[in-house]
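Late entry, EPU complex.
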Amino acid sequence: MLSKAPPAGVYPKIGMGLTPLRFADGKPSQADNDKINENLPMHPRNHVDLSPFNTLALPGKAAAYQKITAPEQLAAPDLAKQNRFILGGGSNLVMTGDFDGLVLHMAIPGKRLVKEDAEAVYIESGAGENWHDFVQWTLQQGWPGLENLSLIPGTVGAAPIQNIGAYGLEVGECFHSLTAWDFEKQAFFPVDRSDCRFAYRDSIFKQEGWHLNGRMAITSVIFRLPKIWTPNNRYAELSNELAARDIAAPTPQDIASAIIAIRQRKLPDPAIIPNTGSFFHNPLVDQAQADALLAKFPALPRYPQPDGRVKLAAGWLIEQAGWKGKYLGPVGMYEKQALVLINRGGATGADVQRTMAAVQADVKAKFAVDLTPEPIFL
Ligand code: EPU
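Prediction complete; structure with ligand written out below:
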């Protein structure tokens, strides 16, 4: 895969022709992030505090820090020699202390129509674009398909890494390909959808550990959005919201608005209450364990998977274990959604790890289920 040359006609000359455009829609958390990005110098700096760049607002300094606004910057030979961490929006990150290496903060802008065929449009975005702004821009251009993923924090470049998903859609379903820089081979390489091994909150990037070891940096992503659009409103909470709004035949914008409203009701805005969204994966258990749990806890929410396993709702398990709205010092589980770990102010990575371990222990004791954290630890 790494040796493949970019197919002519689909991939642009890397970094060229992308127009930096912004379509603000008044979402403060993301606007803040963008402002920070725009004000930062592009040359490397030392001992940079990363607390403004992680949505849990945890302290931690990078020994070296550089903002990347064009793919070509990644080819500087000295970057390849250093211990690296590739940072996007910092919305899936727990800082556990200082980082003794180089943080490359991905801020490559640009979004555009790459090509169009009878069935679909192909839209490319620079890795540093804000995800939510990008989704709203596609809707404004008349290219629906990503609306169910409205208001997810973070950047476009990070979206495929954990295959972000919400309200019945995972980004892998609309993903076409991406371009990344390989620091070892000193070359850009394309990654097709079939290479990505997308699964629930998972991809080749996580499976190979590239998101942790700085082996490669995603510079741009292409999405394939079918021209024939049908609403994806099977998720019960979404269909209920549309019904409450008296919308029988939703437009893509109706779906985006409904999802924005649902998320704003139960998920804290990281600009106001620092958090990383869902803190744990929804656990997958085998059928026998699900049956045993159901016998003991008849209200247990469960979602049978195609492979025979059963997905459980971590938020429900955490609430039943008594952790909804409960804190250990400055870190606890949010009162409106028990799956969201929040920093009430002044927390460190150690505080996060203490609360995480306590929640895991209590859920394990009550349900014999292991909870795996969703964010990565630096
Ligand atoms: N629940 C509770 N108590 C809670 C929270 C949830 O009992 O405090 C129950 C709900 O009543 C429901 C079930 O748990 O029966 C599932 O809850 P919900 O629909 O809110 O979704 P979730 O499983 O908690 C997942 C994703 C979210 C995504 C939503 C909507 C994961 C780890 N989380 O949450 O993704 O927005 O579904 O699709 O898969 C994220 O990854 O950061 C994220 C927010």
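The two ends are 28 Å apart (CA to CA). Will revisit in the morning.
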